[in-house]
């Protein structure tokens, strides 16, 4: 006897459902025409979010020119790869235009500006690598040390470390978070490159950073920093250990952000004797490599090739070749053939034209570059200068350098 009651109810229910569906469809269509999203986007699963934001996933454009990475791994290359230390720098008028509007560290800390200046040399020259625009002294900054870039002077640290008690001033908590702008710039740059060339990340090495933090800036003698080694040996080791730990975490962050190769700059190795280099600098450089690989493996992040550039430490190339770095950078003071004898056949060499040669006539410069490249050979070699390009370098010299490298073999 309930059937007459149920049928009207069912009919009304189905009619209401159909009417609701039609109404919802019309509303969605109207919202779409107005450009309004009808439903809130659901968040991605957290592991995927982390992978994308950290930059080492598959979301970057495929690499079109991998000669640099192939050379680092000892694989055949189409041509000898070339890039230049400080290739995004003061010799470029477009860089000067950016600097006229923004101070140095504002450029470093603003990913859009850092990417713009990183891109500038790639628009002009047929380079085989890019290197993110930053500075080695961002690590002391993140530790709480004031660093200023003064025109005509360079970096100035107005409150340097004077004695062991000053180590208490270093804020080791949250340093990588304070450096996240570098990772953001790397990720942004990988996308801007659209796979054109690989992207370098980099860091200063502990001894070099220690020198700046104690000297209060660049130094021709490093007398205060060297005095620390003899007067405060325990504090010196403590400082080197702190800096090594920070460098490792900084490089891990850069790889996660998308850096495809890394360079460690031991720019002040020339202030150490061979004995000091082997006892003070090299242990830190070894630990950077070992700890970095371990941490990347723990987080299942693929490792990238690494360059060790210890300016002024050509006396210890054999020892550097045993550190595990895929590439050893050379300054201009050593002959390529002698360097190869010292490191052996299983390490890639990078370098080593004297930056001063960039002031030669185009004809003479081309001759010097051709001679250099042919001495190194095509296997396991990356062409570069023996140090950073200098501010007054003629732009034409960069064009000659790059073309000569590519023509040599």
Automatic annotation (TrEMBL):
Catalytic activity: uroporphyrinogen III + 4 H(+) = coproporphyrinogen III + 4 CO2
Uroporphyrinogen decarboxylase (URO-D) domain segment(s): 81-90, 200-216
NCBIfam families per the UniProt record, alphabetical: hemE
Record Gene3D superfamilies: 3.20.20.210
Functional note: Catalyzes the decarboxylation of four acetate groups of uroporphyrinogen-III to yield coproporphyrinogen-III.
PROSITE patterns: UROD_1 (PS00906), UROD_2 (PS00907)
PANTHER family referenced in this protein's UniProt entry, alphabetically: METHYLTETRAHYDROFOLATE:HOMOCYSTEINE METHYLTRANSFERASE RELATED, UROPORPHYRINOGEN DECARBOXYLASE
GO MF, any single term: uroporphyrinogen decarboxylase activity
GO CC terms: cytosol
Pathway the protein contributes to: Porphyrin-containing compound metabolism; protoporphyrin-IX biosynthesis; coproporphyrinogen-III from 5-aminolevulinate: step 4/4
Record keywords: Cytoplasm, Decarboxylase, Heme biosynthesis, Lyase, Porphyrin biosynthesis
Leader sequence residues: none
Highest rank taxon of the organism: Eukaryota
Subunit structure as annotated in this protein's UniProt entry: Homodimer.
Segments crossing the lipid bilayer: none
CDD domains listed in its UniProt record: URO-D
Pfam families documented for this protein: URO-D (PF01208)
Protein name listed in UniProt: Uroporphyrinogen decarboxylase
Protein EC: 4.1.1.37
GO biological process, one term: protoporphyrinogen IX biosynthetic process
Family: Belongs to the uroporphyrinogen decarboxylase family.
């Amino acid at each position: 006897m309930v059937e007459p009651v149920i049928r009207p109810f069912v009919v009304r229910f189905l009619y209401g459902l159909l009417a609701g569906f039609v109404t919802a469809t019309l509303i969605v269509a109207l919202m779409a025409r107005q450009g309004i999203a009808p439903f809130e986007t659901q968040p991605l699963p957290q592991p995927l979010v982390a992978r994308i934001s950290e930059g080492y996933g598959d979301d970057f454009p495929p690499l079109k020119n991998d000669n640099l990475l192939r050379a680092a791994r000892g694989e055949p290359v189409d041509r000898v790869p070339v890039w230049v230390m400080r290739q995004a720098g003061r010799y470029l008028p477009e860089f000067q235009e950016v600097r006229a509007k923004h101070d140095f560290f504002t450029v470093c800390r603003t990913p859009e500006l850092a990417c713009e200046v990183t891109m500038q040399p790639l628009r002009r020259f047929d380079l085989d690598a890019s290197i993110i625009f930053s500075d080695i002294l961002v690590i002391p900054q993140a530790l709480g040390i004031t660093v200023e870039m003064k025109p005509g002077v360079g970096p100035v640290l107005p409150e340097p470390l004077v004695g062991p008690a000053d180590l208490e001033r270093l804020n080791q908590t949250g340093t990588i978070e304070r450096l996240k702008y570098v990772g953001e710039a790397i990720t942004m740059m990988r996308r801007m490159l659209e796979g054109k060339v690989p992207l370098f990340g980099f860091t200063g090495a502990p001894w070099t950073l220690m020198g700046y933090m104690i000297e209060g800036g660049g130094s021709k003698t490093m007398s205060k920093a060297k005095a620390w080694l003899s007067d405060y040996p325990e504090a010196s080791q403590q400082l080197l250990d702190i800096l090594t730990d920070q460098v490792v975490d900084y490089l891990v962050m850069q790889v996660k952000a998308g850096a495809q190769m890394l360079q460690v700059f031991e720019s002040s190795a020339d202030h150490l004797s061979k004995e000091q280099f082997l006892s003070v600098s090299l242990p830190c450089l070894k630990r950077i490599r070992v700890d970095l690989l371990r941490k990347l493996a723990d987080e299942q992040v693929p490792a990238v090739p690494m360059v060790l550039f210890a300016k002024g430490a050509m006396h210890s190339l054999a020892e550097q070749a045993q550190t595990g770095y895929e590439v050893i950078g050379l300054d201009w003071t050593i002959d390529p053939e002698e360097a190869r004898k010292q490191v052996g056949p299983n390490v890639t060499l990078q370098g080593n034209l004297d930056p001063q040669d960039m002031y030669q006539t185009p004809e003479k410069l081309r001759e010097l570059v051709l001679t250099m490249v042919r001495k190194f050979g095509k296997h396991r070699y990356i062409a570069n200068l023996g140090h950073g390009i200098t501010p007054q370098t003629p732009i034409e010299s960069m064009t000659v350098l790059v073309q000569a490298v590519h023509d040599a073999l």
